């Protein structure tokens, strides 16, 4: 059945979101309709709102939804109406990557997360009262959760216990998974190894909390914002470096003369990444997580890599959400991953203020409340 909902619609690049009444399409096989109660805002939403990245408009963004399943389509067995769920990125389940437990590198990732339509070609929603002429694109990360209701898939709908509130759950779907997964799954540092986090937004602080949990030391946070560095210290950073244009590699080597074992870069800023490569120990690894603006190029001295060093990327923390999100929630509940300290909640209607506060650095992880 088509479902009435309210969605924050992005109608033009760079425009503010407008809350509008919409009608969701009926769900099909393998799909799940979720009543969204909370949705985090991630910098990927901000990037799509700001830059031309090929996504069709008007569109509903939002990819950290949490809520309660309302209905499931034919063939869905792992979740049922009434289940509390966290929504993550979508994957096909059949391609070589998905078959090898790496759904984050799904061959159909773009189709399932960015195409703007459901796989059968339908628009996931229309403007209320406008019928087919009022098509609104969605399916963003297999969800589009800046809305009271979303259509997701069984594969990206993660059933969770009903014991955590939705605002706490929502950021597990992307930002926390991305930052923490890069440390727990991609880099896998041992206790006593050193790690630097460059850029202490929510993803960087998630990486930092994971590294603190694994007892990395020294554990160094780098940012331009002194308040963020104070927060990083309270979350376990042993050292901080205020990025003020001075030689970052030298500042890291002043703390660790032999170089750092692991670096997580969340800035996507060429000179910062270049400086990071100059601070790596032999066999050190630098993982890049940020989607950089179009036209970005990075130059490094290639001889740096000869010391067994590696520069790599990672998507969604190399995590299978069905496995990793319940694991990370357990880590949180054990007091080892206190990401709730990063969250500031906003009523859904204040989505534009929440985005502005995130961009200015006033808040770390805004989470919208839909109920
Ligand atoms: Zn796949
Ligand atoms: Zn994200």
From TrEMBL:
Enumerate the spans annotated as Enoyl reductase (ER) domain: 14-368
Q: Which UniProt keywords apply?
A: Metal-binding, Oxidoreductase, Zinc
Quote the InterPro entries the UniProt record gives: ADH-like_C (IPR013149), ADH-like_N (IPR013154), ADH_Zn_CS (IPR002328), ER (IPR020843), GroES-like_sf (IPR011032), NAD(P)-bd_dom_sf (IPR036291)
Task: Name the coiled-coil region(s).
Answer: none
Q: Which cofactor does it need?
A: Zn(2+)
UniProt GO MF annotations: oxidoreductase activity, acting on the CH-OH group of donors, NAD or NADP as acceptor; zinc ion binding
- Return the SMART domains for the record: PKS_ER
Q: Which Pfam families match?
A: ADH_N, ADH_zinc_N
Q: Which residues cross the membrane?
A: none
**PANTHER family given for it?**
NAD-DEPENDENT ALCOHOL DEHYDROGENASE (PTHR43350:SF17)
Protein family: Belongs to the zinc-containing alcohol dehydrogenase family.
What is the protein's given name?
Aryl-alcohol dehydrogenase
- The organism named in the record is Sandarakinorhabdus glacialis
């Amino acid at each position: 059945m088509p479902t009435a909902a309210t969605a924050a619609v992005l109608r033009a690049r760079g425009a503010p979101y407008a809350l509008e009444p919409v009608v969701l399409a009926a769900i099909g096989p393998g799909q799940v309709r979720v009543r969204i109660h909370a949705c985090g805002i991630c910098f990927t939403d901000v990037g799509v709102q700001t830059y031309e990245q090929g996504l069709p408009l008007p569109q509903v963004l939002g990819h950290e939804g949490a809520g309660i399943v309302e209905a499931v389509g034919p063939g869905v067995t792992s979740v049922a109406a009434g289940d509390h769920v966290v929504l993550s990125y979508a994957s096909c389940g059949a391609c070589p990557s998905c078959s090898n437990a790496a759904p984050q590198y799904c061959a159909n990732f773009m189709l399932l997360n960015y195409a703007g339509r459901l796989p059968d070609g339908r628009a996931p929603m229309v403007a209320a009262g406008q019928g087919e002429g009022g098509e609104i694109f969605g399916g963003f990360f297999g969800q589009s959760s800046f809305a009271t209701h979303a259509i997701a898939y069984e594969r990206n709908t993660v059933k969770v216990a009903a014991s955590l509130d939705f605002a706490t759950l929502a950021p597990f779907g992307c930002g926390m998974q991305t930052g923490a997964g890069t440390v727990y799954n991609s880099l896998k540092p041992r206790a006593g190894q050193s790690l630097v986090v460059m850029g202490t937004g929510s993803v960087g602080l998630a990486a930092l909390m994971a590294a603190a949990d694994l007892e990395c030391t020294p554990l160094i946070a780098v940012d331009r914002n002194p308040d963020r560095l104070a927060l990083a210290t309270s979350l376990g950073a042993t050292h901080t470096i205020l990025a003020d244009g001075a030689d970052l590699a030298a500042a890291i080597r002043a703390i660790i003369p032999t170089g750092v074992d692991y670096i997580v870069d969340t800035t996507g800023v060429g000179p910062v990444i270049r400086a990071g490569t100059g601070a790596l120990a032999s066999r050190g690894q630098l993982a890049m997580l940020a989607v950089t603006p179009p036209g970005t190029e990075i130059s490094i001295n290639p001889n740096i890599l000869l010391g067994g060093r590696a520069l790599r990327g990672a998507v969604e923390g190399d995590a299978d959400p069905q496995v990793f999100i319940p694991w990370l929630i357990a880590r949180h509940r054990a007091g080892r991953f206190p990401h709730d300290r990063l969250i500031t909640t906003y009523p859904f209607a204040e989505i534009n203020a929440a985005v502005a506060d995130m961009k200015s650095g006033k808040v770390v992880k805004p989470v919208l409340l839909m109920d």
